[in-house]
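Researcher: I'd like a structural prediction for the single chain below. Treat it as a standalone chain; there are no partners to consider.
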Amino acid sequence: MNFKSLQFFIFSCFLLASTPILAQIPQVPAEMEFADMIIRINPQARREIQLDVDALYRNPSYFKVKLERVNLYMPIVERELRSVGVPLDLKYLVIQESGLIPDAVSTSNAVGFWQFKQGTAEEVFLRVDSQIDDRKNIVNSTRGAALYLKKHNNTFDNWMCALVSYQMGLGGAKAYFGNRYNSQRIIDIDRNSHWYFKKFLAHKVAFENQIGGVLVSNSQRLVEVQVQGPTSLKELAKKYQVSEEHLKEMNKWTINGKIPAGRGFSLVYIQEGKLDYKPAVIESKPSQTKPSQKSKAEEKYYPAYKQANSYPKISGNTTKATQPDQITVNELDGVLAANTTSPEKFADKIGIKERKFRRLNDLDPEEKVEAGKYYYTEKKKSKAEIETHIVQPGETLWSISQKYGIKLSALKAKNRIRRDEDLKAGMVLSLQEHRKRGEEIPVVTVPSSTPVKVAQSQSEPKSQNQTIPVYDTSTQDPEPSYSNSPSKITHTVSPGETLYAISKKYGVTVDQLKTWNQIGSQNIISVGQKLTIFKP
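Model: Treating it as a single chain, here is the predicted structure.
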C-alpha cells in the first residue's frame, strides 16, 4: 500500500468513526421559539451560530462531561427560574456563563455558576464575604440571576434584551437597543445582531434536546438538603454519610468548610446507592415519633400531609425590611410593617397608592396594617409553591393567603370555602389545584400546645369561667399585656427578646408563634411588636 493509499485509508476510517458523532450535531433552524417569542434567523446568522454549535460538539468526551453536569443541576435551575417567574428558556444561559462549574472565574473577576461580580451579587441579595460566597451556591445564585433578569425585563418587556443586559448591564443594553424591541414578539436575527444572544442561541440549540438524556450514573442522585448553622461540613459529612472532601467539592460556597448561624443554607451532594437517577431530590428525614391512632375516616382522606413552617420565605436585605425595595416575600416584592397603622398611612410611607396596596394585599378599607407582618408591593400569585397547608388555630383565610403569597380569591376558589367561620384547625387546604365539586376538605389532627399555667389575679376575683395567664416574675422583662379574650394573649416584644424566649415564657413552640403572627423564615421581630398567642 503506497503512502497516498494509506492516507486515504486513515482518513476514511476517521470519517466512519466520526459519522455517529457528527450525525448527532443539531442544526440551527431558520425559525425557533424563545421565551414566548419567535426568533427568525437569516442564512448568514445561521451559519455563524452553527459554527458555535459545532464547536460545542467538537470534543465528544468534553461535551458528555458538561452534559452530565447540566443534567445534575438543571432541575434546581428550572425550579428557581420558575419560582421567580422567568421563562425556562433562560436556563441555557447558566451553561453559557460557567458550564455549571461552581467556582468558575472570568477574566473580569466574575465568579460562580452565573458569573456575578461582587457588587452585582449584593444587588440581588447574594451574600459574599469571608465565610459565604452565594455565587457558588446553585440555589441562591440562580435565584439571584432570575431576579436580575426579571428586573431588567420589566424595562424592556423583551427577554432577548433582558438577556443581553446580563452581559452589558441595564444602562448598556438601553443604549444599545433603545426602545426598538420593547414588547416585540417576533425578532429577526442577522449578522448585526448582538453576539451574546447569538452565542446563547447556539447553547440552546446544542443542549435543548440533550437535557435529561444523559445520566450521571444509574446509582447516583443529587440530593439537596436545608441546613442551619452553626455547623461544619465535617459534622454534616457524618450526618449524611458522605466524605467531607465530597461535600467541600459540591459546596464551594462555604469558604472554610464552616456554616455560620443565621439563615438556612442549601447543601447538595451526590448520593450513592442502587437507586434510579433522581436529580435534585429535596431530602426530608422521616419522623421518629410514632404515628398517632387515626380514625378510619381520617385514613380515608389523608395518609400524610406535611406542614410548611418556612413560609413566608424572606430574602434580601432583611436589616432594612421595613423599607421598600429591600426584601422579597415568597419571591415577590414586599415590606415589613414596623408599626400598626392605617393602610393609607402605610401606603404613603412606602410610596404606593393606597387602593393599589389594599388590592395587592386583599385588605378592606377599615383593616389595619399590623406591626411585624409582611405585606406585598407586587401582585400575589394564583397558586403557591407548595401543594397544601394545614390550618392552625387562629389562622384566617387572609393570613394563609399572605403566608404563601397566593391571592385570597384564588385560595377561596381552590377550596370552595368563603368564610373564616367555615375554617377549622387541621383542615388541609389546597394551594395549587382546585378541589372537585362536592369533594370534602381533609382534616388532620393538629398537635396541641403545652397548656399555659393559670392563677387567680390579685386585683380581681377569679370567676369560674375565666383563666388568667401567670407570667414568670423571676425575669426583669416588663410584664406582657394580653387581650380580654380568655383564648388569646397579646405579648409586646421587649428589647433583647427572641422568639425562643417568648415561646418558653408561654409554653408554646416557635413554629406556633411564627404561624400565628405570620413571621417568616428569618425570624424577624421588632421591639414594640405585638404578638398574638393562642391558648390550647
